[in-house]
Amino acid sequence: MPPPAAVPALGFMLDVSRGRVPTMPALFRLADRLRLLGFTQLQLYVEHTFAFPGHEDAWRGASPLTAEEIRALDAHCRSRGVELVPNLNSFGHVERWLKHEKYRRLAECPDGFYHELFKMRRPAGTFFPCEETADFMGALYREYLPHFSSDKFNVGGDEPWELGLGRSRERCAALGKRAVYVEHMLRLKKRAEACGKKIMFWADVLLGDGDGNARGGEIPAALLDGAVPVIWGYEADHPFDAQCARVRAALEKTGGSGSFTVAPGTSAWLSFGTRLSNALANIRAAFSAAEKWRAGGVLLTTWGDAGYHNPPAANLLPLISCAALARGDPAPETPADFAPALEKMGVPAAETLAEALFSFGKLDDFISKKIPNRSWIREAFFAKGEAFEKLAADVPAAEIAAAAEENARVLKLLGGVPASCPEAAELSVAAEMTAAALRRADAFLRGDAPARAAAETEAAGPLREKFAAAWRLSCREGGLAESLSFF
Predict the structure, then answer these.
(1) For the Glycoside hydrolase family 20 catalytic domain, which residue ranges apply (predicted)?
(2) I need a labelling partner for 271 at 20 to 30 A (CA). Which of 47, 134, 195, 369 fits?
């Protein structure tokens, strides 16, 4: 398909750190599909899943990517006109490093912290902003970045939750959290530039004042010079327009030569792939703002929070939607709009799979009770005890019945897709898990304890094994045990 026209660059970021690390054939297949759709960039979101020499404690058991694999994927992408951009979170979301005694000295809160948003204690997950932690990351950069031919590098930097709550408390009180954040990000920028890379970074802290007001404060110019902020947001009503306007205005003040990227999401995480309506609306809003405010690119993201139970197949329709909007075409709205792209990818029974993906993706629409950034259906599968009963208590039985009927139709559709199709196999397991979640909720509402117990027994046994088998179709063993621990 033609390259992007509505935006200069179109990328896809795949989380390979929250459990699922794809096999090399799966990564090669992804790169081929991105080329067919007209994408120009691929990023693999890494926290600890690269085999850094001397840091085996961090990646042991995770089936990490190796230097040889990165070089092979880079060459494969390059031969297809897709730029493999390195992505390594460098400030927050480093729990999988800081849980080891070896790295404890680098933590902002070595003993953990109380998370105000989630109302619970969490383990250390943010580096203490100082030269020592910047040097630590600089050493990792020197090991990691030479394997990529791209001149770009996403250093992350999102959600440093405990910044200012521990060792940086006094400095943050004196200067403000955002000033301390920018100071440390500039340290990371310097070390990335020493490796020949221009940084990208998540813009959430830049857009807030860093002290609890997500909309306040003037955007500091220091971090915009020679760096690309990535404005991310994942709900249908995310204020992309206002945020892009602020970043564009800040860039104009610095001479107007800089750029920014807009990042919507697949909405697949914390679901089985049933939040497609939110994803498509979120993507449309992102492209509208990107075009209006002259963004340098759009980066579609997908994540694997809390066990990565979302099947890779759930990314397909959001990818196709992004590709269409990037070309300046109308947004796909029906299964028939998505089927031609699936056929180009070589997916068997493309029309049937498009209808199954589309219908399955709409299942959360049947449930009027909404949970921000996650699926009610997934929660109904995994929630335990009182949490489950509270979740299901006020949902009308008619909604659950309608969702169950549509899900049964999806399973019937998938029966018409060749068994050799991995996407159909993944989606079938997700649909079976959805059926169990809906049976469980229905049984609770009817007061049928045996039926509820039967649904829970199925989830703990047969579905657990089917999920593991589907995982292994495209992903490595590392992370699977953690994912299964939720069942």
Answers:
(1) 64-208
(2) 47
